[in-house]
C-alpha cells in the first residue's frame, strides 16, 4: 500500500515522543521557557522534537522537516541545566544521546519545506500540557502541497471511560484509524453523520485568545447546534470530530490577533485524519487549506472542520455575518 513505510515510521517516532512527554508530565512539574513570541516551550517539546527528527533522519535522510521548535533557546550557557534535562529524557529512548546530538536533532526541524517534507508540532497545545489538560504530538507528510500521511498522538485523550492515551493515523485514500497508545488493533474512524444537528456538539480551543469564542457560539447556533461547546486544547479537537464525538470544530480569527496566520504543523495531521474519516476541512471562506506556502497557511484565515454534512451550511452562516 502507498506510504506504508512512512506510516510505520511516523507512528513509531510519534509514539516514542508521546511516551517521553507523558513521562515528563508524570515525573516533574515542567517549567516553561518563554519564547520570543511569548508562547511557552518545555523540556518535553524539545525532547519530542529531538526524538522525532532523529528517527525521521535515519529513515528518510533526504526529507526536510518543518518543525515548530529550534534549539536557539537551549544553546545559551544559562540554559545548560534545561539541555541536560532534555538530554536525560531523550536518553530514555536513544541511550547514546548527548547535549550536542540533541540540539542537532532538534535543528533538523528547521527546514523551510519543498515538494516533499514533514511538518512537526512536537507538542501541540503546550498550554494544555502545562495545565494537565489535552495536548498532541502532531506529525504529517506533505507532498505536492497535499497532506499524505498524518499522525496525532494524544496521551491524555480517552473515549468514554476508556484509558487515556490514543493515537490517530491516516493515509490519503486509505482511511483513518485509532488505537490505544499502549498498543492494540486499529479501529476505523468515522465522522458522525445524519442530519439531526440538535444532537451535535462542537469543539473549540480552551484559549480565548486563539479564536473568537463569541462568534464561534453564534455560528454553531445558527446551524442548529444547541449544546454548549466542548473546549479542548490542541489538535485533539480534530480527533474528536474524526471519531464522531463532535460534528464541528470552529477556529475563527481572534479579534485581538486578526492578522494571525495559522502554522502548518497546527493543522496538517488533523486535516487528513478528518478527511479520511469522511469529514471536510476548509478555511472560513470554504477554501481548502493551502500547505504549499511554507510554514504558515498564508492563503487562509480561520478553520472550519466538520462531518461534511453540515459544512456548506456553516460556510453560508459565516458569509451572512
Ligand atoms: N492568535 C492565535 N490564533 C490562533 N492560534 C494561535 C494564536 N496564537 C497561538 N496560536 C496557536 O494555537 C495552538 C494551540 O491550539 P489550541 O488553542 O487549539 O489548543 C498553538 O500551536 C499556538 O501556536 P504557538 O505554539 O505558536 O503558540
Ligand atoms: Mg501547536
Ligand atoms: Mg507546539
Ligand atoms: Mg508552541
How would you sum up this structure, described in words?
Belongs to the inositol monophosphatase superfamily. It catalyses: a myo-inositol phosphate + H2O = myo-inositol + phosphate; adenosine 2',5'-bisphosphate + H2O = AMP + phosphate; adenosine 3',5'-bisphosphate + H2O = AMP + phosphate; 3'-phosphoadenylyl sulfate + H2O = adenosine 5'-phosphosulfate + phosphate. Keywords: Hydrolase, Magnesium, Metal-binding. InterPro entries: DPNP (IPR006239), Inositol_monoP_metal-BS (IPR020583), Inositol_monoP_superfamily (IPR051090), Inositol_monophosphatase-like (IPR000760), Inositol_monophosphatase_CS (IPR020550). It comes from Prochlorothrix hollandica PCC 9006 = CALU 1027. With 321 residues, the chain is of the alpha+beta class. It has 2 domains: 4-188, Fructose-1,6-Bisphosphatase, subunit A, domain 1 (Fructose-1,6-Bisphosphatase, Chain A, domain 1, 2-Layer Sandwich); 202-320, D-Maltodextrin-Binding Protein, domain 2 (3-Layer(aba) Sandwich), CATH 3.40.190. Helices cover 34% and strands 19% of the residues. The chain has helices at 4-27, 43-59, 72-75, 80-91, 99-107, 126-131, 213-222, 236-242, 268-276, 311-320; strands at 33-34, 40-41, 65-67, 116-124, 136-143, 146-154, 166-171, 176-180, 187-188, 202-204, 230-231, 248-251, 280-282, 303-306. The strands form 3 sheets. A 7-stranded mixed beta sheet has the order 3-4-5-6-7-8-9, sandwiched between helices. A 5-stranded mixed beta sheet has the order 11-10-12-14-13, sandwiched between helices. Helix 1 (4-27) packs antiparallel against helix 2, helix 2 crosses helix 4 and helix 8 packs parallel to helix 9 (268-276). The longest helix has 24 residues, at 4-27. The chain is globular and about 55 Å long. The model has no long low-confidence stretch (mean pLDDT 96). One magnesium ion binds next to loops.
